[in-house]
Amino acid sequence: MKNFFLNPIIVISLIIATTFSCASNDDISIPDLDKDNPTDVEANTELLAITDLFTGNVIEFDQVQNGGELVTSGFIISSDVSSNINNQIYIQDKTEDATSGLVIDVELDNIFLTHGIGREVLIKLNGLGMKKVGNELHIGVYNDGAITPISGDDFQDFVIRTNTKETIVPKILTINEILEAANSDEPLPTILVSIENVQIIDEQLNTTYANVDNNSDVDKTLINCTDEDTQTIILQNSGLSTFKALPFPTEQGAITAILSKNKIIIRDTNDIDFTEERCIDDSVLLYEDFQDITDTNEIIELDGWENINISDPQLFIRWEAQKTNDNIFAEIEKGGSTQKYDAWLITKEVQIVNTRTLKLSVDINVNNFNSNDLEIFIVENVSGDNINFSEANEIDDIVLSEDTSGFITKETTITIPSDYDSFRIGFRYNKKSSTPSETEYQIDNIIISEE
């Protein structure tokens, strides 16, 4: 592999970045490395052709090119200036109307000093590989089937900064367009987008961007301020960000962010332009993302909720709080080999406001599916172990009957019976027989809203 030696200017820049990483951005000068760009490397493969190679298995690029040199290019859309994105470089194939994007994993800090937003980079792919992490395609060093971040020493061997720097024009989308694509066979790529007329939901008003006391990631829910579309989308903020203790804006406006299927990530607070008067958000009747739970691997206990197993007092199988990549969700384990059980997670009471025709949205992930054990009901009320519901009020439009590779947002319209003054939603894991059950369900981001 050809070696590119670090220019002294780069070394000085990295020393400055390490020594003064806590200083304000105005105190740091960004070196101009244009004159040091190599001229003997050119892209020979479009980024879209690279991302299209992924079909579910880890890709080793050496095998793809059979020893030949494979080079692609892209424009940087990310920045670690505020530490909301760390050790990663997001790129997309074009500055406008992008069709492809991915993440380069690196063992570097203060990347923004030399590789700013809009800078074109060439990626020499020989020696690298590609995998999927959540909803994103990541590339890094390939080693015996594993993909690891590119080290600081090897960074310039693989990622080459060009003289070209352009303005990135985010793709303007609505939340509805994003969610429709996310639930289709062709989700949108990891690119820079702009969403207009959005605001944080009422339940999260007067909160900070992330947790002040710990480094956990925090999901904020943004809702669209249009009469015809009250969809929501998750904005994920890092607990390592420099702005985590700042209050989240309460007004409405536009947000520029990196899209990852059905979640978005900002580079810094300048990406949020909420300056207009807040629109009235009375359509969301219930929202629960489980992020306020501090005890994971424990039975879920939420104010007003019920978490019970009515099949046998001796069975302690309940819905538990679990955590993956700082995201907390509700999980019910597989049913075991012989036990029969009837485990319920039931929301707090929801009052009827303007209409009985409502929308239910929930993120669901299914693992090791071999039997249909999840049932969802409109529940009238709960008293102890007595759950008052009717089989006629089962909500079956959003229950999945197959494994998923991650959370999938499912939505349906529900109609509350005319004799109910209030209601609840019950998630029932009903293992009816002694047949071994391996199915595991996870649920998150439960939203009940008016149509």
Please describe the topology of this protein:
Blueprint lengths: L7 H12 L27 H5 L7 E2 H5 L5 E6 L11 E5 L8 E5 L13 E6 L3 E6 L2 E8 L2 E3 L6 H4 E7 L5 E2 L2 H8 L9 E9 L17 E7 L7 E6 L14 E9 L2 E3 L6 E5 L7 E5 L9 E2 L6 E4 L10 E5 L2 E6 L8 E6 L3 E2 L5 E11 L6 E10 L2 E9 L13 E8 L6 E10 L8 E11 L1
Parallel strand pairs: 4-7, 10-11, 13-15
Antiparallel strand pairs: 1-6, 2-3, 2-5, 3-4, 5-9, 6-7, 7-8, 11-12, 11-14, 12-13, 14-15, 14-16, 17-29, 18-20, 19-22, 20-21, 21-29, 22-28, 23-28, 24-27, 24-29, 25-26, 25-28
Describe it.
The protein is globular. About 35% of the residues are buried. The protein is built from five helices and 29 strands. The N and C termini lie far apart (about 60 Å). Strand 6 (about 130-135) and strand 7 form a beta hairpin. The strands form four sheets. Strands 1, 2, 3, 4, 5, 6, 7, 8 and 9 form a nine-stranded mixed sheet that branches. Strands 17, 18, 20, 21, 24, 27 and 29 form a seven-stranded antiparallel sheet that branches. Strands 19, 22, 23, 25, 26 and 28 form a six-stranded antiparallel sheet that branches. It is mostly beta strands. It is about 10% helix and about 40% strand. The protein folds into three domains: about 10-165, OB fold (Dihydrolipoamide Acetyltransferase, E2P), CATH 2.40.50; about 170-280; about 285-450, Galactose-binding domain-like (Jelly Rolls).
Cα-based radius of gyration, to the nearest Å:
24 Å
Q: What structural class do helix, strand and pairing data support?
A: mainly beta
The strand count comes to: 29
CATH first level of the largest domain: Mainly Beta
